[in-house]
Design brief:
Elements (H helix, E strand, L loop, with lengths): L7 H13 L2 H8 L3 H15 L4 E4 L2 E4 L1 H29 L4 E7 L4 H11 L7 E7 L2 H8 L5 E5 L9 E12 L14 H4 L4 E5 L8 E2 L7 E4 L2 H9 L4 E5 L4 H6 L3 E3 L6 E9 L8 H12 L9
Parallel strand pairs: 3-4, 3-5, 7-9
Antiparallel strand pairs: 1-2, 5-12, 6-10, 6-11, 6-12, 7-8
């Protein structure tokens, strides 16, 4: 029977020495003595028969072999951490709370219907909905801050996604806006001369906004409802979800603009579960109810 020569703790110590740039810094970060870290790494090298680190001056550097082994060790320690998290989730059972990231173009009525269907059997689970935009939704997924994400556009890299629907954005303005007199806008340079309303990206690490961004005059707001209120006051133009402005278009409070080559924009919406291993029965139940809103049935074992 195979018996490991090394321990996870030894590999974690080696990772810390490399990540923090030396034994002294790693000892501070791990709240351990420097001598215990030296001993652990020395023992690991002896057990494996491979030199992992070499010290030059006051800093420890990986050897070529150490670099290969350290890279593989990260996968192992990460897997063990995820395994322990999974065991904890199974022990806890039904989740006390769930957080959903909703790209703001996703139809809110469908999400409300799914949450209402979840409520009778929800066992008191609290549900929080975070309205997010563009990379903000992806950021919440990548940082594992939500249980379910309704993402617009391409799903975050490395995550599986279930397509749900497609949202159509159309170009609109107030009837008093000079743009409304144009039967068809032939050149986007003409649009650039007018005030544009755009939606702010909610990501902390990016500075992109939703919409065509060539207009010299631009007002940035947090959501489509604020954008619609500005448009109805007579100012600016904006790309808005078609479903959101159907009443205003029918009443004549807003008018649709037609841009040659880009009369509308269609954005796919995908459902993403950031970590299946972390998903509990409550999250699974709510996910299935959201899928059902789009006629998607999914059998789970």
């Amino acid at each position: 029977m195979f018996r490991a020569k090394s321990t996870l703790e030894q590999w974690r110590i080696l990772q810390a020495v490399v990540d923090h740039g030396g034994y002294a810094q790693a000892a501070t970060a791990l709240n351990k003595s420097q001598s215990s870290l030296n001993h652990a790494v020395a023992k690991l090298q002896h057990q494996l028969g491979v030199e992992l680190l070499e010290v030059r001056g006051r800093k420890a550097y990986l050897t070529p072999r150490g670099e290969v082994l350290l890279r593989r060790s990260r996968y192992i320690t990460q897997s063990v951490m995820e395994l322990e998290q999974l065991a904890g989730n199974l022990e806890r059972g039904w989740e006390p709370s769930l957080t959903i990231a909703r790209e703001i173009i996703y139809p809110m009525d469908k999400l409300i219907t799914a949450i209402n269907a979840f409520l009778p059997n929800g066992r008191g689970t609290r549900v929080s909905v975070i309205d997010s935009v563009l990379n903000g939704t992806h950021e919440l997924v990548e940082e594992n801050k939500v249980d379910i994400a309704l993402c617009g556009g391409n799903p975050p890299k490395g995550h599986l996604a279930q397509p749900l629907c497609v949202v159509e954005l159309i170009l609109v303005c107030h009837p008093s806006n000079p743009l409304a007199a144009e039967l068809k806008i032939q050149d986007d340079k003409f649009l650039a001369q007018h005030l544009q309303i755009v939606i702010r990206d909610t990501a902390a690490k990016t500075n992109k906004d939703i919409g065509w961004l060539k207009a010299e005059q631009r007002w940035t707001v947090s959501n489509f409802h604020e954008a619609k209120a500005i448009l109805c006051s007579g100012s600016g133009f904006c790309w808005l979800p078609k479903e959101l402005v159907e009443k205003e278009l029918a009443s004549g409070d807003l008018v649709r603009l037609y841009l040659t080559g880009s009369e509308s924009r269609k954005i796919p919406i995908n459902l993403v579960v950031p970590s299946r291993d972390d998903q509990g029965p409550a999250g699974e139940a709510l996910e299935l109810l959201i899928l059902a809103q789009h006629g998607i049935s999914c059998q789970r074992q």
